C-alpha cells in the first residue's frame, strides 16, 4: 500500500487544498507534519467552501483519522476556534477523528507578539511573515524551551517550562522595548486551555505505526512550499520549518521508508506572498492579469500575491531537493487567452547562463530570467477532464513544463472543482 506526501513545489498557494482533498478521500489517515496556522487551505466540496488552517484536510471527510504531527507548531486557541468554526459547518471534530502528537510544541501569545514586534522593528527589512508566531515558536523548540502539548497535563512541569521560557523572552522583550510577560495570566490561560486540548493528545508515532502495519493508506499533507523551506528556500525570506518531503518522516515519527510517492503541487505560473527574491516576477499588465484571473490573494492574510511567469529553474530545483516523483499541475486555465506565454528556462548571472538559483542573497538579487516564448491558446482549458478536451497549444505547454523540470505530470487540475482533474498516475497506486 502506498503512502503519499503532498508538498508545494513553489512558494506556497499552489492549490494544494483541492489535491489533498482529492487524495484524502482515498486515504485512511491524513497527517500535517510541519508549519502551523500560517497555512490556509480552501476545500470546495459539493459547492460548500471549507477554509482550514491547522486542521488536516481529511477532517471534512467521515471515517478518516486526522493527525497533527510533532513537526507542527500548534496555537491551541487558534485550533479550538477552527474546530468550533468547522463544527458549525456540520463537521464533527472529536478525539476519534483528530489526534495531536503530544510532543508538538505550542505557539503562545508571546510568540505572536514577538513575530509582530520584530516585523515592525525591521521596517523595510521585514520578512513579510503571516504574523502568527510561527518563527518564534520554532526558535523556542530548537532552543529547548518550548511548552509542548504533553506539558499541559502537569502544573509543576508547566511552571518549570515557563521559568525557562520567560527568562529568555523577558530579556528579549526588554531589548525590544516591550513589557515583560504577565506570567500569572499566561499560566491561567494554559491551565484553562489544557483540558480542551488534552483529550486529542497522544503518542501519534505509535498510532501511525499501527495504521501502517495494518496496511492503511497514509497521506502526509505539506503546507507552504519548497521555496519557503528553511534550508533550501530563499533564506531568510522563508518560513521556519522544512517544507520539503523529508520533513514528513521526522515531523510525524515515521521512518523515511514510510513514504512511497512524493507529489509536488505546481502552479502553471508563479506567485509569492511576502518579501524576498522572485526572478520571474512581473510588474506589467501580464502580471496583473495573472493575479486577477488567478484570484491571487492570500487565504490567511488577504495580502495580494506577487505574480510571474512559470519558472522552470526553481521547480526543477525543488523537485530535486524534495525528491518529487510526479507533479500535479494546477491553474492552467489562468493562462487561457494569453496570446503568448513565457517560461523562465535559465538565469543570467553577471553575463553567464546558469541553470539553478544560487544561494548567496546578493547573487539571487542579481539573476535575470532567460525566457522561452510559447504560443498561447484562445480556447478554455477550465473544467477539462481528458487530454482530448485540451487545446493543442495547452498540451504543448504542459509537455514543455515536464521536459524543463525533469519530472512528469501525474495529475492535471483544471478548476477548483474536485472532478475537474486529469489523472495520469495515481500516486497511491504508483
Ligand atoms: P511565516 O511562516 O508566518 O513565518 O512567514 C514566512 C514567509 O512564509 C512569509 O513570506 C509568508 O508570506 C510565507 N508563508 C507562510 N505561510 C504561507 C502559506 O501558507 N502560503 C504562502 N506563503 C506562506
Plain-language structure description:
The chain has 430 residues and is of the alpha/beta class. The chain has helices at residues 16-24, 76-88, 109-122, 134-142, 155-175, 183-197, 204-213, 247-250, 285-293, 312-321, 361-366, 392-405, and strands at residues 4-8, 29-32, 41-45, 48-52, 65-68, 98-101, 201-202, 218-221, 261-267, 270-272, 306-308, 310-311, 326-330, 340-349, 352-354, 368-375, 409-413, 421-423. A hairpin with a 7-residue loop joins strand 17 and strand 18. The radius of gyration is 22 Å and the shape is globular. The protein has 3 domains: 4-103 and 201-258, Adenylosuccinate Synthetase, Chain A, domain 1 (3-Layer(aba) Sandwich), CATH 3.40.440; 109-197, Orthogonal Bundle (Adenylosuccinate Synthetase, subunit A, domain 2); 266-429, Alpha-Beta Complex (Adenylosuccinate Synthetase, Chain A, domain 3), CATH 3.90.170. The strands form 4 sheets. It has a 10-stranded mixed beta sheet with strand order 7-6-5-2-8-1-9-13-17-18, with helices on both faces. Helices cover 31% and strands 19% of the residues. The model has no long low-confidence stretch (mean pLDDT 96).
Amino acid at each position: 500500500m502506498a503512502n503519499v506526501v503532498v508538498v508545494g513545489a513553489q512558494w506556497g498557494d499552489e492549490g494544494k487544498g483541492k489535491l489533498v482533498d482529492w487524495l484524502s478521500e482515498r486515504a485512511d489517515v491524513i497527517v500535517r507534519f510541519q508549519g502551523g496556522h500560517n497555512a490556509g487551505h480552501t476545500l470546495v466540496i459539493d459547492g460548500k467552501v471549507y477554509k482550514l488552517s491547522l486542521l488536516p484536510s481529511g477532517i471534512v471527510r467521515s471515517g478518516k483519522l486526522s493527525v497533527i504531527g510533532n513537526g507542527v507548531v500548534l496555537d491551541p486557541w487558534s485550533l479550538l476556534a477552527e474546530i468550533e468554526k468547522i463544527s458549525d459547518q456540520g463537521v464533527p471534530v472529536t478525539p476519534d477523528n483528530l489526534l495531536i502528537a503530544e510532543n508538538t510544541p505550542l505557539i503562545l501569545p508571546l510568540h505572536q507578539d514577538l513575530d509582530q514586534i520584530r516585523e515592525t522593528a525591521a521596517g523595510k527589512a521585514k520578512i513579510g511573515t503571516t504574523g502568527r508566531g510561527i518563527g518564534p515558536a520554532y526558535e523556542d523548540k530548537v532552543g529547548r524551551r518550548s511548552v509542548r502539548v504533553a506539558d499541559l497535563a502537569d502544573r509543576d512541569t508547566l511552571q518549570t517550562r515557563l521559568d525557562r521560557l520567560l527568562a529568555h523572552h523577558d530579556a528579549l522583550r526588554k531589548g525590544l522595548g516591550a513589557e515583560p510577560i504577565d506570567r500569572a495570566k499566561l499560566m491561567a490561560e494554559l491551565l484553562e486551555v489544557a483540558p480542551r486540548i488534552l483529550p486529542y493528545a497522544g503518542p501519534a508515532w505509535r498510532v501511525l505505526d499501527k495504521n501502517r502495519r495494518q496496511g492503511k493508506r497514509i497521506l502526509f499533507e505539506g503546507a507552504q512550499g519548497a521555496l519557503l523551506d528553511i534550508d533550501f528556500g530563499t533564506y531568510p525570506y522563508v518560513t521556519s520549518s522544512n517544507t520539503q518531503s523529508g520533513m514528513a518522516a521526522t515531523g510525524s515519527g515515521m521512518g523515511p521508508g514510510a513514504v512511497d510517492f512524493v507529489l509536488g503541487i505546481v502552479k502553471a505560473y508563479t506567485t509569492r506572498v511576502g518579501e524576498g527574491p522572485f526572478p520571474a516576477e512581473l510588474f506589467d499588465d501580464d502580471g496583473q492579469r495573472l493575479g486577477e484571473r488567478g484570484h491571487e490573494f492570500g487565504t490567511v492574510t488577504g495580502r495580494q500575491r506577487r505574480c510571474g511567469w512559470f519558472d522552470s529553474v526553481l521547480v526543477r530545483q525543488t523537485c530535486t531537493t524534495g525528491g518529487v516523483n510526479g507533479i500535479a499541475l494546477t491553474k492552467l486555465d489562468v493562462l487561457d487567452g494569453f496570446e503568448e506565454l513565457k517560461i523562465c528556462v535559465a538565469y543570467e548571472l553577471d553575463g553567464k547562463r546558469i541553470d539553478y538559483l544560487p544561494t548567496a542573497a546578493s547573487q539571487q538579487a542579481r539573476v535575470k530570467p532567460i525566457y522561452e516564448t510559447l504560443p498561447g491558446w484562445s480556447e478554455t482549458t477550465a473544467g477539462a477532464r481528458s487530454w482530448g478536451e485540451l487545446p493543442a497549444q495547452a498540451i504543448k505547454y504542459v509537455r514543455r513544463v515536464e521536459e524543463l523540470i525533469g519530472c512528469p505530470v501525474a495529475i492535471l487540475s483544471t478548476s477548483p472543482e474536485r472532478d475537474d482533474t486529469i489523472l495520469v498516475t495515481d500516486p497511491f497506486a504508483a
